[in-house]
Amino acid sequence: MATYYCGYLVPNEFLLQRAVEELGQEPPENAEDEIELILMAARDLMGETGVLCSAKFRRVKTPKGTTWWCIAFSSKAPHERLPATAPPEERYKALKEAIATEANQCLF
Length: 108
What we know:
- It is a single chain.
- The chain is of the alpha+beta class.
- The chain has one domain (5-106).
- The chain has helices spanning 12-22, 31-48, 93-98, and strands at residues 5-10, 56-61, 67-75, 104-106.
- The protein has a four-stranded antiparallel sheet with strand order 2-3-1-4.
- Helix 1 (12-22) crosses helix 2 (31-48).
- The two termini are 14 Å apart.
- The mean pLDDT is 89.
- This is Unplaced genomic scaffold CY34scaffold_103, whole genome shotgun sequence.
- It comes from Suillus luteus UH-Slu-Lm8-n1.
């Protein structure tokens, strides 16, 4: 059964660029380095925008089959330990602004 999230889809390129340009990391040399940089950049972005403790970072597949990273605020899946409904916008407004040009909102 599929798990649905409400949050923001974030492209790999956005997170890799953040890791290299804003966090001063070396570009990835292999897939393992790439994942490490993506996780580092996501954790930094979530902390900087105040959602680190209230959101989850998940790999998701859209109905069209495209795979993305998602910073999720809510889910109807109890095992995710996220609220079942989306929080008020003020809780994630800083994140929305930080990734506005690169992210796409995903809904239930």
